[in-house]
Amino acid sequence: xxxxxxxxxxxxxxxxxxxxxxxxxxxxxxxxxxxxxxxxxxxxxxxxxxxxxxxxxxxxxxxxxxxxxxxxxxxxxxxxxxxxxxxxxxxxxxxxxxxxxxxxxxxxxxxxxxxxxxxxxxxxxxxxxxxxxxxxxxxxxxxxxxxxxxxxxxxxxxxxxxxxxxxxxxxxxxxxxxxxxxxxxxxxxxxxxxxxxxxxxxxxxxxxxxx
Length: 211
What we know:
- By secondary structure, the protein is mostly helical.
- The protein has one domain.
- Helices cover about 80% and strands about 0% of the residues.
- It contains 10 helices and no strands.
- α1 runs parallel beside α9 (about 160-170), α2 crosses α6 and α7 packs antiparallel against α8.
């Protein structure tokens, strides 16, 4: 899953974020680590809940009510990060400037939140693993172990290499000019913003279709 569906879901979001905010391969590696660790821990936590609560809770959460609120929140958060990157730290909007410094320049909090949000989005791999846990586990410890195994497997992904390579992009000669680099960052922020808007619009359309 880490080289397929999970890569397709997480890759564009994380790579766009790294390209817009990091200037070194080490920075890209750190972003990948924080994001992946956050996603791993939320997966283990949900596995614990699956082992404790059994199939009824997760059947209602992921099947009868397919996480519209979670998808909507995730899309808003991703679009918001993209908007902050587009505006930059020198924006005349004081609140946006402070948020940019807190969430983009000192971005560990954003990466943790991003990892958690992506980790709980009800995509098919997540639905599959938690459905399996609720059917196969007889004790909450089994839910923890199975979800941890899945989380570790998903972490072994080309996303690690892609994150480091993305950190090299700002070092390319055309981007050594400050204006060119800022334009590139805004483009990446725009991609992140559009990904968030796409998630929001798709969620709203699916919700309206289900009514």
